[in-house]
Amino acid sequence: AQTVTQSQPEMSVQEAETVTLSCTYDTSESDYYLFWYKQPPSRQMILVIRQEAYKQQNATENRFSVNFQKAAKSFSLKISDSQLGDAAMYFCAYRSSGWETSGSRLTFGEGTQLTVNP
Amino acid sequence: DTEVTQTPKHLVMGMTNKKSLKCEQHMGHRAMYWYKQKAKKPPELMFVYSYEKLSINESVPSRFSPECPNSSLLNLHLHALQPEDSALYLCASSHRGGDPNTEAFFGQGTRLTVV
To answer: How far is the alpha carbon of B42 from chain A, nearest alpha carbon, in Å?
Structure first.
């Protein structure tokens, strides 16, 4: 079974600064997808960024980028120019590539609570 | 429309009540999910429906009864719940398949309190 570990229960950052959230995972599969979801106090889980394991290039979405190290099974999220609206719980998640092989399941990490200080 | 709509947003029910949670999406997704989330914890998968058929039940107690009447709707019927069932219940939907664009879209959840 796959596991996802987020070792930082809480992080804080000053507005406009950069912060990196860590995520490691364990799997025996070679093809899979990784996601970062954000859950603000409004409760809705919002996709921040996705990474396909077969792609070497790190995904980027505006101020959000990842550092994907497949051999090390590491998938960190970097938030640049942090804004007050970035304050939320961030979950790292894993999904198998094949639907029939547990591809319907998202395996979540425990989450990192990010505080943005003005 | 990339929305998953859940109703109600808040629900308080007694242990002898019967209630239902509703979820709706119009994105053409053929996979729909129920998750349970406790405070400051990640969501836990409860059920997965694929093409309106139940494909995964994560050993959820029978006091939770899912239903998928059509490809856009997902219900969760609740009966004789316990106080420990109080949680945020999240509905999600996605395309089915191995494409990465099958990321799940989540609703805002129903905050359930069992008294």
So the answer is: 6
Min Cα distance B108 → chain A (Å) is: 4
For A103-107, B3-7, B53-57, B61-65, which range has the lowest pLDDT when averaged over its residues? Answer: A103-107
Q: Which residues 50-109 of A have a C-beta within 8 angstroms of B? A: 50, 52, 89, 91, 97-99, 103-106, 108-109
Nearest to residue A7, comparing CAs of A26, A22, A27? A22
Q: What tens digit of pLDDT does each residue of A22-56 get?
A: 999 999 988 889 999 999 988 889 999 999 998 88
Q: Are B54 and B68 in contact (CB under 8 A)?
A: yes
Q: Which residue has the tokens 């079974």?
A: A1
Contacts of residue A66, Cβ cutoff 8 Å, sequence gap at least 6: A34, A36, A49, A51, A58, A59, A60, A75, A76, A77, A78
The maximal CA–CA distance of chain A, rounded, in angstroms, is: 46
d(CA A110, CA A53) in angstroms, rounded, equals: 21
| Residues of chain B found within 8 Å of residue A105, distances taken between Cβ atoms | 45, 48, 56
